Amino acid sequence: MSTINNIYDRLKGDKVIWIVITLLCVCSILSVYSAISKEAYMHHDGNTGYYLVKQLVLLSVGFFFMYLAYRFNYMFYSKVAPVLIMLAIPLLIGTLFFTTGYNGARRWFTIPIINQSFQPSDFAKLALIIFIARSISRKQDVIKDFKSAFVPLIIPVVIVCTLIAPADLSTAALLFVTCLLMMVIGRVSIKYVILLSLIGIGVLSLLVLLGTIFPEVIRVETWTNRLSSYLGDSEGGWQIRQSKIAIALGGIFGVGPGFSMQRNFIPESYTDFIYSIICEEYGLIGAVTIIALYVTLLFRCTKMVTRCPKTFGSILAIGLCLNIVIQAFAHMAVNVHLLPATGLTLPFVSMGGTSILFTGIALGVILSVSKYVEEYSVMEIMKEEMAVTEEDIQASSYARNKMKHENYY
């Protein structure tokens, strides 16, 4: 117990965010270990322990890189932002032609030797958010100007989101919305934000047109099938029906950890539909707990932003947080049939490699900002106390001199 207290005391930054991250990791281990049983029987003779160890390793790697990102001063990310965005663009171009296909999607490079998949869009999300935060902070004096501020902002957003969209429209849309919200928070004129929204709709229309010519590159057929299934089938198709059954079976208290039946029927139950498995096994209590963790993360980041003295730190923290939280709620919305199937994972909970790694880095950057805000707040308190002390000394000195003067006369 004393060891835990020592670790807690040594960690700087927002302690509540540290606790939220730890609880998300616990939820990930429990839910993935349960949901993976079908996959284990198909590929590893029922050895669920293999996937448990794999998820523990992935979370450990995510935690390690999160800690590294947390240790850096967050202004370091402003310096490397141009380099990150210049790396992201060629990687995204490469996904269109040289990546590994899975379920009809070409999103992953396979890293030799370790045989681990790498999804460039996860790296590109992080790079673009850091770059947009940097650009907004540097353009504050001319933020309302179209040529000086808005044009340099929209170019990287349009390029990156357009390159992600052919293989992963849902991730591109989520990133696009995050950038729009960052611009609103960064005081970009609303008329320009609306203009960027219209540009996004135009680019999507162009992609749909090109998808009819290059169906092997742009997944227009998948988009239209998912949309028609969502709009035309009130039950939502096989995946959504099974997800609804899982949620209904869970009730208030759930069927208990490891007793899910729907994990055997829901495709990708350990990634795209893990929230429904959590609802089945832990009931309404588990469902609300997951929601509360992400809402708490958003609340703490919003509170941090209001206290951060530098624009870059504020925009960076809220941008990364919004990207994580919006993805989480989009994942949940799909599971309860409020949105069409998207393929979005539940951040830091679903099984994954690149997703866990870059979500960990994003959380580490948020903690780095919170560490600075905490240090800044302490310095401000010390300054106030020092000012009060100086005033007391001056008042005391004045009183002594006055008494000496009175006694003399």
Would you mind describing this structure in some detail?
The chain has helices spanning 2-10, 15-35, 37-43, 48-71, 75-98, 120-138, 146-164, 169-185, 190-213, 220-232, 237-250, 274-307, 311-335, 354-408; strands at 100-102, 105-111, 116-118. It is mainly alpha-helical and 409 residues long. It has one domain. A 3-stranded antiparallel sheet has the order 1-2-3, covered by helices on one side. Helix 6 (120-138) runs antiparallel to helix 7 (146-164) and helix 8 (169-185) runs antiparallel to helix 13.
What count of helical segments does DSSP give? Answer: 14
Helix content: over 70%
Question: What can be said about the biggest beta sheet?
Answer: 3 strands, antiparallel
Given as residue ranges, the uncertain stretches (5+ residues, pLDDT < 50) are none
